[in-house]
Amino acid sequence: MASSHTNDNQTEKTAKQAAVERAQWLRAAILGANDGLLSTTSLILGVSAAAEHDRRSIILSGLAGALAGAFSMAAGEFVSVSTQRDIEEKLFDLHEQPKLHHDEEYSRTSTPGRTPVMRVMVEDQQGLMKVLPSPHKAAAASGAAFLCGAVVPLAFSVLVVENIVRVGMLVVVATVVLAVFGGVGARLGGSPVKVSILRVVVGGWLAMAVTYGLLKPFDRDGHE
Q1: Residues of the chain falling short of pLDDT 50
Q2: CA 66/CA 154 separation, integer angstroms
Q3: How far is 95 from 115, CA to CA, in rounded Å?
Q4: 141 in Cβ contact with 29 (< 8 Å)
Q5: Is there a contact between 185 and 196 (Cβ–Cβ < 8 Å)?
Q6: CA nearest to 32, candidates 173, 147, 136, 203
């Protein structure tokens, strides 16, 4: 009976760990796609403002931004997650002591600087290590997601010839996709959905408007 109860607890614990791990890399992927969409859209809008008749430069700048952003995102995610794992591993090495495995003994031997959070982390060392995402998986997910998000504005740059139509369609489509990303990200993070969507959309509008507005004065054709 005790063995069955232990197995059930272990199964539940494993399921929770798997769910947390999925949520972590899914959230990283959504953030990567959001960045890819917004940064590439803003870049294309900015170049469109400064060189609206140079469609080749618009497409090349968008492509360059997508590739550079994807590799930058992947490298940053790899470094960040690797550093996180190193910190956790050192924390385990410093605080993993048998006397911390029991609440009564912990209460008698606790010292300043050793918090209950550290004790929980030690007790659940194997589980916590499984929850931490793989640096390689996180980097691949972020880089690929960034490219997926960048595909949307790049496709419009290639398919839509008229500049004013392209700019308008980019803003509308980017707004819709940003709202979707904001909603999904809020669900995964446990945040209010409406507030998250509003925050993401308004932030996206500001990024696109500022980029377009700052580069518009460089439009030579518009001043001729």
Answers
A1: 97-130, 224
A2: 9
A3: 10
A4: yes
A5: yes
A6: 147
